[in-house]
């Protein structure tokens, strides 16, 4: 049962009981942006955290969340593109007290760092980093961690994708193409793992003000002259006005809310779904 009544004064109130405090969550890309917010929201639910990031900041982030929410936190500084590092961090988990590992949220990703319109402006070598991090990072994680969940016959993956993976975004074709591959592999994983009681879904943000979003503006801005360059804030405003029906950027919290819902027992019949949290930017029919 997902709905509980909490007596909050005379009227009372119905809230979702996510039941996420029955194990640990592994969040990749947890040192910043959307991954960090997802980690915070799980911590608020009383869920123990396993946090992976290539940034050295990850240990400080972990200590701060452990102190703030009185939960267990294990941090590893790893590059998800490196299969050996992912395997080693996974072995560390099974040796530690951080099981049962029930929830996986994969947020680590990068852009190419180049403005890719038209695509011929790029070199084929500009594709390598996004392919390694965004595609092989997801593959490394899935291969390392799925056997743990299969053994437990329970668990949930939520991948963070992007609307760019659905529309052939011209800003950064290598990023966009790897995000499309992430969608496809999410569906494949969902079909393979369903008989083992494991759900696999994806949340696709539209535009969230994070370091990643700023790097897209920076790569565009580097190519402008005085007459065409505009500030990050104005660039964002213009994009929002032109593309987002609800008229706002999303917050990391908007994305985390959907991630927690999909991870929870409230979504027990949801798998293989690609859910956009994008203010209506991309609408399918
Ligand atoms: N910000 C947006 O507008 C937006 C839009 C669509 C999709 N997304 C997706 O959301 C997710 C999170 O992005 P964000 O905006 O929070 O970015 P961010 O740059 O703020 O955070 C990404 C985190 O991932 C880590 N990371 C990067 N490469 C890594 C690697 N190889 N190994 C381990 N950690 C690594 C970084 O250190 C950082 O902490 C990504 O999958 C991104 O594609 C973001």
Structure characterization notes:
The protein has helices at 33-44, 58-69, 83-95, 128-152, 164-167, 173-193, 211-221, 232-243, 252-263; strands spanning 3-6, 13-16, 24-28, 48-53, 73-77, 101-106, 155-160, 198-205, 274-277. The protein contains nine helices and nine strands. Helix 1 (33-44) packs parallel to helix 2 and helix 3 (83-95) runs parallel beside helix 4 (128-152). A seven-stranded parallel beta sheet has the order 5-4-3-6-7-8-9, sandwiched between helices. Strands 1-2 form a two-stranded antiparallel sheet. It is 43% helix and 17% strand. It has a single domain, classed as 3-Layer(aba) Sandwich (Rossmann fold). It is of the alpha/beta class and 285 residues long. The radius of gyration is 19 Å and the shape is globular. The protein binds nicotinamide-adenine-dinucleotide. The site of nicotinamide-adenine-dinucleotide has 27 residues, from helix 1, helix 4 and helix 7.
